[in-house]
Write a structure and sequence with these properties.
The protein has 229 residues and is an alpha/beta fold. Helix content is 33%, strand content 29%. The chain folds into two domains: 3-98 and 218-226, 2-Layer Sandwich (Nucleotidyltransferase, domain 5), CATH 3.30.420; 113-215, Nucleotidyltransferase, domain 5. The strands form three sheets. The protein has a five-stranded mixed beta sheet with strand order 3-2-1-4-8. The protein has a five-stranded mixed beta sheet with strand order 11-10-9-12-13, with helices on both faces. The chain has a three-stranded antiparallel beta sheet with strand order 5-6-7. The protein is globular and about 50 Å long.
């Protein structure tokens, strides 16, 4: 069954038409800075991907999700109270963006086969998700930003970001004891970042595997599309 997945980030919106095996079509846009403009952008992207055949839509948003409504989105503050289903005028299943990424990577990508896995998205903000034996858990605290996230946004370059993130995420890794850590998002795609991040986590005593998201920056959109399958 074909479905559409939307991944609304702090900087970019990515949308895919997913047939259960691969991405058939992709649309990308900069994230607008107001709710009305975002609605127009999302509707336009969905229309382009549907090609005159209505499809079910799943959407991933950073922040606190309550049903089909965004209670709070740290890097898109204009989304407070944004009701996705109401804005679209049709049913849309909404999920936290990191959990959407984790769903895709657990089923199809870097998390496959891991008994316990922590998933991170490094983009405008930090996304976190946790899974056990293929099932992504709903950890409510992960929907809220880390206290150090504003500091993270001021750190530039893979050489500086890798030790910074290893230092600040090590307590979570120690708490959840994953066998695999999966890193995705635009920062994880930077040249040299994954090797440095892997090395820094090893220095902190993490003995498991550190993997880059196999589905790349489309993982969140694919995971959102999978919500409807």
């Amino acid at each position: 069954m074909k479905t559409i997945g939307l991944d609304v980030g702090g900087s970019m919106v990515r949308a895919v038409r997913w047939n259960g095996i691969r991405v058939e079509k992709l649309a990308v846009a900069k994230t607008p800075r107001s709710a009305p403009e975002l609605t127009k952008t999302l509707r336009r992207m969905v229309k382009k991907l549907e090609e005159h055949t209505p499809l079910k839509v799943g959407a991933g948003f950073a922040g606190v999700i309550e049903g089909g409504k965004i209670k709070m989105s740290p890097n898109n503050r204009f989304l407070k109270g944004y009701n996705v289903t109401k804005e679209f005028g049709r049913a849309v299943r909404v999920e936290n963006d990191a959990r959407a990424l984790a769903r895709a990577e657990y089923a199809l990508g870097a998390g496959k086969g891991a008994s316990r896995a922590l998933f991170f998205t490094f983009g405008t903000g930090i996304g976190r998700a946790y899974g056990v034996r293929g099932a992504v858990k709903r950890v409510k605290r992960f929907e809220y930003p880390e206290k150090w996230e504003k500091h993270y946004q001021r750190v530039k370059g893979a050489v500086a970001l890798a030790p910074f993130l290893a230092e600040h995420l090590e307590p979570l890794i120690r708490l959840y004891k994953p066998r695999v850590v999966v890193a995705g998002g635009a920062v994880a795609e930077k040249k040299g970042f994954m090797a440095l991040f892997r090395r820094e986590l090893k220095k902190k005593g993490f003995a498991g595997e550190v993997r880059g998201a196999k589905l790349g920056t489309l993982a969140g959109a694919i995971g959102a599309a999978m919500l409807m399958q």
